[in-house]
Amino acid sequence: MPDEPRKPDLHESSAIAHLVAETCITDEDARELVLLLGATNWPSLLREARMLSRKT
Questions:
Q1: Which superkingdom is the protein from (predicted)?
Q2: How confident is the model at residue 2 (pLDDT cuts 50, 70, 90)?
Q3: Is the dihedral of CA 45, 17, 56, 53 positive or negative?
Q4: What angle, rounded to 10 degrees, do the helices at 10-23 and 27-37 form?
Q5: What percent of the chain has pLDDT over 70?
Q6: Residue 23's pLDDT is what?
Q7: The domain containing residue 14 runs over which residues?
Q8: Residue 3 lies in a domain
């Protein structure tokens, strides 16, 4: 059976939505950042999301 991606919890979902709104990155990119860095690491999430948004 292939590994299914883990669904984000409510706190992670909120962080994902906020990142998308704040930085205009894709939902998929925001989800990946939150899963890698954690939903509570907001300064790092914003920094990485802003770098991603500049590349696109």
A1: Bacteria
A2: low
A3: negative
A4: 130
A5: 91
A6: 95
A7: 10-55
A8: no
Note whether residue 4 is domain-resident.
no
Is 2 a domain residue?
Answer: no
The candidate with the shortest Cα–Cα distance to 29, out of 47, 14, 43, 48, is 48
26 touches 53 (CB < 8 A): no
Residue range 9-21: mean pLDDT, rounded: 92
User: Among the residues of the chain, which ranges form H helices?
Assistant: 10-23, 27-37, 42-55
Report pLDDT for 56. 63
d(CA 54, CA 9): 28
- Quote the pLDDT of residue 6: 72
Contact 33, 19 (CB under 8 A): yes
pLDDT at 45 over 90: yes
Provide the number of structural domains found in the chain.
1
